[in-house]
Amino acid sequence: MAAKKKQKSSAPVTSSVEKKTSKAEKKGSETWKRMKTIVHNHVVPPLFLVFFTPIVQVLALKAIPGIPFEWDRILGNAYSWKVVTIFLSWALTFLLIPGRTFEGPATSFGYVPVYADNGLFYYATTFITYLGLHFVYPNLSLDIYHNMPYILGSLNIFALALCLILLIMGKWRPQTSEKMPSAPILLEFYRGMEIHPRLLGVDVKQWTNCRVGMMAWQILIVAFLIAGGRHGVNPGHLANVVIQTFYITKFYYWETGYFNTLDITLDRAGYYICWGCLVWVPGFYTYSSFYLVAHPSTLTEQAAFFVALLGLFIVAVNYRIDYEKQLFRATNGNCRLWGKPAKSMAAFNQISKRTSTLLLSGFWGVGRHLNYTFEIIAAFLWCFPGYSYGIWSFLYFFFLIGLLVHRCYRDEEKCSAKYGHFWNDYCKRVPYRMIPYVF
Q1: For 2-54, what is each residue's pLDDT tens digit?
Q2: Torsion angle of the four alpha carbons 379, 259, 127, 395, in this order, in degrees rounded to the nearest 10
Q3: Which secondary-structure segment (H or E) carries 384?
Q4: Where are the beta strands (DSSP E) in 189-261?
Q5: Distance between CA 150 and CA 283 in Å, rounded?
Q6: Which of 102, 187, 207, 352 is 20 to 30 A (C-alpha) from 78?
């Protein structure tokens, strides 16, 4: 018999140097993950609680010249508690009124949240009612402006108490079958325990985010415009409020679309979302308008008109981007975008175990998060009327850049976990996040 030749193995030979490099990279990756977990679980929650909770009142004092800090402001006063109680009750009432409902996306554990679908009606009724109150209470807006530090104090106390109640409910009286691993108590307070808790018969996040936070934003910027316009409306201040009003109106028109965003589908009801909407939105998102009361804009009428017009256009584009995705979902992809049939790619949702589609047409074929880009541009434009006073009028703009860039990465992390290699393929076909050819 002829001796059989021994075949050589075609498998690549890994050198000892490559093995050591691989082990070092793996060890470095594990170390980075541990550090990230420590920062997320033990550093961020107390840091945010200590910094953000008092800063809104500090900024309010900065915007009103000559007002010294007084400790009683952190507790509110009789006027602030009356205003906050009435507004919270008003917002709650509109969620309890029988009417149309909207079902949000199902969670991974099978819960389907139900929301009141009366956002635009609530917005219009509240706006008109607030303006009408000036006929019987002419100094309403002026009193709100002067009591703003106290109002923030009352909102702070209420928000912190609500977050504590939500923590207790989530830990000892959970409303769903979701199983949550144990975590540091400050992280649970900061992050929240449940995604869709209900309290007093309503969805908590719809109450805090949509009915209180966003509406307070609208009412307060109008109040500040009226308070600053006692001797004539400032054109720059008016441009600032007009752009924001159009943006907030767009939000309520699109409210059911908001129920598909990270704020609702991923973030839990805790300090981050609920305190943020009850205190941070009224106190910080309105800051460019609040600051202009005592620091009038120096924009000419022509410049203010141009800024307002450009701002309205940018907000309209921002809405168009969100609308394209809504239209694509509502028609199961059978629609036209930019004059052509919408293109998409099939993807498998590894969480729901269902086939899905990812949009490749319109704005969503140009960038994966262009809605964030135009939101940042809109914020810059409504902050711009206070440019002559330096950074103070632009605080919200800089904050929004950090918030939305961070959210962009959170979105992508979530999508990567949901779609796996399909998401990687999608990113190759739509390679830019927020700025084409740059980022």
Answers
A1: 444 444 444 455 566 555 556 656 666 677 777 877 887 778 888 888 888 88
A2: -20
A3: none
A4: 198-199, 202-203
A5: 11
A6: 207
